Structures are given as structure tokens and as C-alpha cells.
Amino acid sequence: MLKKDLTTSYPRSVREKYLGVVQLGRAVDKGTALANGANGEYNYDCPMDNGVFAFLGIDGNALLDVIKNAQSESEIEAYLKPFVDKKSAAEIEAFNTEFLSHEPEPGSDGEKYFLGLRGEVAPSRTDVTRWADLLDLDEKREVPQRVGV
Q1: Is residue 145 situated within a structural domain?
Q2: How would DSSP label each residue in the chain?
Q3: Looking at the 3D structure of the chain, how many domains does it have?
């Protein structure tokens, strides 16, 4: 079984492409950590994971079974590749762009959570309005200042 400990490290960034798709590598990291009982505060099969799973037609539980039994990351890639291959480059690019620009729905519980987390992580960064940016900030990654927000 692969090892990943999210109690001492972060998963891949939402932005990092895995087989050309954003969020997918992060979901694999969280699944690997869950399989090891070391997912910490990270939830596998969360709404963001579900977004990429729905786009690709992946069942989160089936992927988790693959992760649990994989001896290498290439085995996970081999499982995921046919799902990715069913999508055109244009479909993947459109998904990636939309996914990375996703913001919480105004007035929603998600927005309340988002604003609370942003207030804890970087209260001065009111330019941060997208989930991908907030997660990167929370995980100590560089997020360029947005102008005109």
C-alpha cells in the first residue's frame, strides 16, 4: 500500500494537474492518506472531489478500493487514465478553468465557512474569493494578489 500522511504534510494543490486534470491528484492523496488512517483534517470524497469524480464518471469508493490495493502510483494512474481519455482536451481545459474559478454561493453556508477560514488564514486577503486560492493559502502556498477585485 502507498503511504501518505496528511497529519504532517499537505495534499497536492487543487491546481496541480494529474493526468491533465486539476483536483484529481489531491483526491488521490486524500484517498491514500485515508487508506493509511492518516488523513487528519482532510476528507476524501468531499464536494470538491465529487466535482472531479462526476466530471470523469469515477465512483469514489471504487477509486478508494484501487488506492488501498495499489503498490505504486502508476497502478492508480492506470485505473484513472481510461476515464480521463474519454474526455477531449477541450472538455478537460473547460473543466479545469471552471473548477479553479469556483467561488462560494453568496449567502450560503459555504460562503460563511469560506469567509471564516479566510479570516483565520489571511484576513487581509479580501482579493481571495475562489476555493482553490483559499486552499492554497491555507496550505502555505503562494497565491498572487488579484488586482481589481
Answers
A1: no
A2: -----TTTSPPPPTTS-BTTBTTHHHHHHHHHHHHTT--TT--TT-HHHHHHHHHHT--HHHHHHHHHH-SSHHHHHHHHHHHHHTS-HHHHHHHHHHHHT--PPTTSHHHHHHHHHHHHH-TT-TT--SHHHHHHHHTT---PPPS--
A3: 2
pTM reported for the whole predicted model: 0.92
Pick the closest to residue 4 from 68, 83, 66, 59 (CA basis). Answer: 68
**Residue 149: is its pLDDT beyond 60?**
no
Residue found by looking up cell 470523469 in the block: 56
For residue 132, give Cα distances in angstroms to 33, 60, 122.
20, 21, 14
Q: Are residues 113 and 93 in the same domain?
A: no
Interatomic CA distance for residues 70 and 91, integer angstroms: 28
What is the dihedral sign for C-alpha 125, 109, 57, 92?
A: negative
Contact 129, 145 (CB under 8 A): no
Question: Is position 77 within any domain?
Answer: yes
The domain in which residue 121 lies consists of 109-138
Q: Per-residue pLDDT tens for 52-104?
A: 999 999 999 999 999 999 999 999 999 999 999 999 999 999 999 999 999 99
